Amino acid sequence: MSETTNRLQIGQSVPDFELTTYDPTQGDFSEISLAELKNQGKWTILFFYPADFTFV
User: Buried (b) or exposed (e) across 39-53, using 16+ Cβ within 10 A?
Assistant: First the structure.
């Protein structure tokens, strides 16, 4: 099985994505997309970590 991985380089735009988030002020889960954050003028930090959140 072959997977194609798109790698971003400095200066390239991140493709739009959608994910489920938890908002502690609302006490509930919701969906958010990168496009939605951009439209709101929000700064966004993408943080990736190992699945079990071990310290590297």
Answer: eeeeeeeeeeeeeee
